[in-house]
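Quick look at the format.
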Amino acid sequence: MISLKEYNISDYLLRILNNILLDMVELFEDTRAEDIDDKEFYLKVLFPEHLVIADKSKCERELSLFESYIKDSFHHELRSLHKYMLFYLIEWYKDVTSSVDFIIEEIDSSKLETEDDRYLAPLLKDLYYYKDFLFEDWDFLDYMMSGLLKLYEQSSLWSEILDFDIDEMFDLLPPDLQEKYFQKSEKNAQSSVSTLEDIVITLCYSFKGFIEFKGGWRRLYYENHQIDEKGIQSLFYCYISLYCRTLNIDVSPECDAGRGPVDFKFSNGDAFKTLVEIKKSRNTKLLHGIDIQINEYGLAEETNSLVYLVFDFGDNQKQIEKLLNIYEDLKRNNEHLHLIIIDSRKKESASRAKKLSSK
């Protein structure tokens, strides 16, 4: 059985969960068997495309192994490759079934032994919640791995700060990156992040990953309405403050050096400063913010290290396009100006782009 190490769950409920997962696997296999002309496509639904291209037989073996884990009575903790498979199996299953078709076996409430049993039992009836309780994090997804590897190349300390295991990613990496990782010298692995600006950019992208891929987008809404920019600033500050203390970086919210308060000033002594300004996509001063406002803050703080952090709620796409054009022009004169756009839309399900691009 696939276990849930984050929960104290009885074998009774765990077997029900694994029976549901087995139904998903069997439907996937039946569908794949019917489409004999395009079996490779179905492998690309569950596996990274580079792995299917390089070793289809390995993918077949891993799928069989995964199914055996679900069927047996041992408790198995999944490797990253199997987490990846399970994540996209759930996405596929949601695409090919409806909520009406999703029926699970009756759960006997008298056999629910723990508080976690009673918490999880109703969630098993709704596919929407599966990715929340099955995965502690989504570090195995391509987007997250790419960002985490960049951090690790700067310093191995990031694996401790952000709590990820670089070895867990190995099976999911393309061959060239596997080779690069194992050839990486210990000296390079232990080297420190080069500049304050690198650290701030890293934290912003980590926050972007939290919002887009770890359910953080839910914190941007209250009673089905977007929170205001002050609320977003508070959320960002809560996220990055512990990292900053760990790295001995001072972060000052609403710091005013004479031209109005910038949302955040990061500093490491008087010589090194990076500023972060936050805007929602429908802010009427979205374009003014990057063209004028953040540069004035930089002049006041005597730094050209600037980050413009935009939360795109999907409600102002024409302005976002204009913003990107303005940024490209400004970037030519200041390579230390950075625009980071965070997809802040509600996410009923993960993107189907992987499936569509594989077809």
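Next, a different chain entirely:
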Amino acid sequence: MNVSANSASGRLAETRSTALFQLAIELPAAVLARTLGTDITVAVKWQRAAFGTWAAYTARSAAESPIPAGKDQTRHGPR
């Protein structure tokens, strides 16, 4: 396998993982398992991994945010 094929293969695996993480976030485990044709335990593991990743991301983002916690600066409702 040449270098460009290895590179494409790596990008494909990364893209596949990203898609699986997104599905794990959006779908219930039973639907995810049925959709992917996997066992429910595999779907649950994907969900735990995805939620763990997103929980760490949101916690890190909140820590770096210039907006103090609890101070939502978006406007809700009519102006």
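Residues 3-64 form one domain.

See the schema section for token definitions.
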